Amino acid sequence: MAGAVSGSPTVLEARGLTLDFPAAQGSLRAVDNVSFTIRQGERLVLLGPSGCGKSSILKAAAGFLSPSAGSIALRGRPITGPGPDRVVVFQEFDQLLPWKTVRDNVLFGLKRKPGLSTAEARDKADAAIERVGLARAASAYPHTLSGGMKQRVAIARALAAEPEILLMDEPFAALDALTRERLQEELVGLAETLGFTLLFVTHAIDEAILVGSRLHLLSAHPGRTVATFDVSAFGPGSWGSQDFEHVAGEVHRILFGGALRRSARPVLQEATYV
Ligand SMILES: Nc1ncnc2c1ncn2[C@@H]1O[C@H](COP(=O)(O)OP(=O)(O)OP(=O)(O)O)[C@@H](O)[C@H]1O
């Protein structure tokens, strides 16, 4: 994957990105001088301890937050607000509209796409629903779906709009371990089949290595770049291999100091966060 994307055009680029929030006394620096490039087809994961500014970077990419210094640009154009070329999938699956069926929820995501006829929109929605394996649930309402299925609807809705980049903020955090694993696999499978570009935020090391093609590690608050890792060699099925454990241990050492202790399959390292 890394070889395949290394010559691909740049989709998203942050240069010296610095993000501040207003605070009681002046402002609070959330992200300090962070730079990265995401090429077409790449899956960049922002990984770091709670509060290091991952979500803030994602919000800047989505156009909800402006840099106080540095820049963030999509296809070379500075991001000044939200747009249909970027779709955000949050953890809250209940971003789905409860009074609309799966198909209508996905169609709703196409509303902002200019120049689509009703029939074309329907075809795109149905194709996206099919791709995430929900064809049989197309007429169902969100409250009848499991958390994992709702998440797939959210992904279908995002993909149907054919964005330049998909922005995902801990989309699997609220799911049980088995569903999470399955959706991680599905996401990577879909990303590779469809070649979409992804910016993914997580604080879970295993998830980052499995989902990403590259990791961008941030220090504790305020977030500064501490390391990057090429993890394109890993994917579903890699967990537990010697190479995987080596990278996971290295990432853990850089982020938290000390060795990564395993008990069983991913018990995420929440307890080690400061
Ligand atoms: N709207 C806001 N107003 C003020 N401060 C904020 C706001 N949003 C975030 N912050 C602060 O900015 C810093 C970075 O927050 P952010 O949510 O980006 O971190 P994160 O790495 O995504 O954390 P987590 O993993 O816990 O979700 C934190 O100190 C947070 O308190």
Automatic annotation (TrEMBL):
Pfam families membership: ABC_tran (PF00005)
UniProt keywords, alphabetically: ATP-binding, Nucleotide-binding, Transport
Example GO molecular function: ATP binding
Residue stretches making up the ABC transporter domain: 12-245
Keyword Nucleotide-binding tagged: yes
Entry keyword Transferase: no
Family under the similarity heading: Belongs to the ABC transporter superfamily.
Listed name of the protein: ABC transporter ATP-binding protein
Encoding gene, per UniProt annotation: nrtCD
